[in-house]
Amino acid sequence: MQLNDCSDVAGHAGPHDCQQKEHTCHQECSYYGKVSNCNRKCSLHARHGGEHKCSSRMHMCPMPCSLPSCTNQCVNPFEKGDHDQHACHENWCPKNCEMPGCNRNCASKNHFHDLERRGNTVAKHHFCEYEHQCNELCGMPGHCEVQTELVKNTSTFQGKRSSFEYEYVSEQKWNRKHCCIAIPAFKVHTCNIL
Fold first, then answer.
1. How many contiguous H segments (helices) and E segments (strands) does the chain have?
2. Which secondary structure element, helix H or strand E, spans residue 36, and what is its range?
3. pLDDT digits over 81-92, tens only?
4. What is the pTM of this model?
5. How far lies 65's CA from each of 22, 36, 75, 118, 193, in Å?
């Protein structure tokens, strides 16, 4: 590190100054260790008054987002003081749609949707913005589908005058299908049809 000679007249009062550039303070910033984005050294003029501030335009809160499943940092300014909730940069619910077989994201634009309260219960419904196929079995009376399966069985017919062998079909299977009514977006059930 090279030091420049003082440019003031010999015997001057006060500190020596080369006057080639404005010198910065270089003390530790008042927010160092308290925030997530501090540049550590004070960037104000060497003889400034008040607290030391680094070159960071805005110091950010060092706490993690208040949503338990979120790993992002809070983006609220530290200088503005206390805030009720530590919020990150995300503006959508990170949960998946709760309908069976659906892997889309929850459609809520509220990052804290999982923590919302409705009355005395926490709102835990996470739905995407699409309709879903009902997973229940058909509730209509009777069978939805009957399948005839060819099973060759041989039997002998014995008459008064003669006998003969013949083949016959002996099996039928029935099947109950899944409901064909689509569940509208943001709903849990379809109406009962009976």
1. 0, 8
2. none
3. 778 888 888 888
4. 0.51
5. 40, 13, 9, 22, 46
